[in-house]
Amino acid sequence: MTQWIARVLATAAVGWSVGLGIWLWVTPYGTQSFAEASALGPIPLLIPVLLAAIAAWAIWRRRILPAALAAGLLLVFVILAGFSIGAGYVPAVAGLIWAFVALAES
Q1: SS3 32
Q2: Which residues pair with 29 in a beta bridge?
Q3: pLDDT of residue 56
Q4: What Å distances lie between residue 3 and 15, 40, 88, CA to CA?
Q5: Which of 1, 49, 50 is nearest to 21 (CA)?
Q6: What DSSP line would sit under 52-84, residue for residue?
Q7: For a tag on the chain, would you pick the N or C end, based on fewer CB atoms within 10 A?
Q8: Each residue of 21-39: pLDDT tens digit?
Q9: Contact (Cβ atoms closer than 8 angstroms) between residue 14 and residue 56
Q10: Rounded to an integer, what distance in angstroms lies between the CA atom of residue 71 and that of residue 48?
């Protein structure tokens, strides 16, 4: 049962990251959107998606160490980017940590 919960939470975290990335990309802030303002293009929005996807893959494969590393790196990203886009990814980090705990219990 906990394996199923871990998989659902990990998949939801990836979905949240993808949805938030798309929303941030197209939503205007003031006079311009993230797409117009970002000097790095979509890379700042792809980093959390890739980290969440790696963590989800590891959770689906029952790999504890890669799941912990990817979730930890996503947490670091959220802290470092907390005053801009990082705060939006807090639910994804929470879901991955909860999935990791569920995986570790099984």
Answers
A1: strand
A2: 32
A3: 97
A4: 18, 37, 26
A5: 49
A6: HHHHHHHHHTT-HHHHHHHHHHHHHHHHHTTTT
A7: N
A8: 999 999 988 888 888 888 9
A9: yes
A10: 10
From the list 49, 65, 52, the residue with the least C-alpha distance to 9 is 52
Question: For the chain, which ranges sit under pLDDT 70?
Answer: none
One-letter amino acid identity for 15?
Answer: G
pLDDT at 105 (0 to 100): 86
Cα separation, 67 vs 40, in Å, equals 27
- Which pair of tokens denotes residue 82? 């907390």
- What is the average pLDDT value for the chain, to the nearest integer? 93
How far CA 98 is from CA of 5, 26, 31, 56, 73, in Å, comes to 9, 30, 38, 12, 15
Which two three-digit tokens encode residue 96?
Answer: 């991955």
Residue 78, both tokens = 């959220």
Instruction: Say how far apart CA 1 and CA 17 lie, in whole Å.
Output: 25
Counting every residue written for the chain, the total comes to 106
